[in-house]
Design brief:
Blueprint lengths: L1 H27 L8 H13 L3 H17 L4 H23 L12 H20 L7 H11 L5 H20 L2 H22 L5 E8 L2 H12 L4 E6 L6 E10 L3 H8 L6 E6 L17
Helix pairs in contact: 1-4, 1-5, 2-3, 2-7, 3-4, 5-8, 6-7, 7-8, 9-10
Length: 288
């Protein structure tokens, strides 16, 4: 079963990699605008130097991946590396074999919508299997590992908008900046439609007969606290406890994996409109 899951994840990674390469090479490159994140840096570098975006992407991501190896779980680094290498090589080969590129003198916005949707889907797919598309996501994951309570999504957005702002000096017109912003918004809608949320955090309620062990996993692996509430089964009358915790949306898959150790647990969660207060477990706090 585990081997089947790995094979399936590799096929999904291959699909996401090719989807990313098609979006960047076939649509973005000819539309004269830069996407957000490291993809935007690579695209602007290609515009200024003529060096294929695939080479630039590898040059930026390899140091980040090496750094990530020491801070993030190895599965994340492995799938992100595979994605980065395949998507970069695909873009290099597309240029070499002169693959079709969408060019429209009257409606460049088709490229904005098409690339935004495809890049949003590829990012969500990689997050779902426990990897990423590299670049800013690697930096965000390292920061999230060290500071899990931070609103990392806002920091990512600020960084991406700064990159988009620089694109004005590369392409020399406001339209390219507006197209970049529009593409980023479409990207977020597409990504969130797959991740099934538009929030940065979720409230999770866990009804379990193993509250102490589950609590330890949440504290040590997710770096979040929880409130424990005694409860009783209405039908069976069994005495159990409910753990209530708030975690980042990117940690939801990790929580589901942890829950498999506790087959008698019941979990439900909902979106959170906002979080204020001590959204973390401090390293200096004692685990009781």
């Amino acid at each position: 079963m585990k081997k089947t899951r790995i094979v399936l994840d590799l096929i999904i990674t291959l699909f996401a990699s090719v989807l990313s390469a098609v979006a960047l090479y076939c649509f973005v490159e000819t539309a004269n605008f830069a996407p957000s994140g490291v993809d935007g840096i690579a695209m602007m570098t290609q515009e200024l130097t003529g060096i294929n975006i695939g080479y630039v992407s590898l040059a930026i991501n390899i140091p980040l991946l090496i750094c990530a190896w020491f801070f993030i779980n190895k599965k994340y680094v492995a799938y992100t590396t595979i994605f980065t290498v395949i998507s970069s090589v695909a873009m290099i080969l597309m240029e070499k074999f002169t693959v079709y590129q969408y060019i429209s003198p009257t409606n460049a916005w088709v490229a904005v919508f098409a690339s935004g949707i495809m890049m949003g889907l590829r990012t969500a797919i990689m997050i779902k299997i426990g990897g990423s598309t590299g670049g800013v996501d690697i930096i965000a994951s390292i920061v999230q590992k060290k500071k899990p309570y931070l609103n990392i999504e806002s920091l990512i957005s600020i960084f991406c908008y700064i990159i988009i702002g620089f694109s004005f000096f590369v392409y020399g017109n406001v339209e390219s900046v507006v197209m970049s912003v529009a593409q980023m918004m479409i990207f977020n809608v597409a990504m969130n439609s797959v991740l099934k949320t538009t929030r940065n955090a979720v409230e999770v309620r866990i009804i379990t007969s193993s509250p102490d062990d589950f609590k330890q996993d949440i504290l040590l692996n997710l770096k979040h606290g929880a409130t424990i509430i005694p409860c009783e089964g209405m039908f069976t009358g069994d005495q159990k406890k409910m753990l209530v915790t708030i975690i980042n949306i990117r940690q939801m898959d990790d929580l589901i994996k942890l829950s498999r150790k506790y087959p008698n647990s019941f979990i439900y969660f909902s979106e959170v409109n906002g979080v204020w207060g001590n959204f973390r477990w401090n390293k200096t706090d004692a685990v009781k």
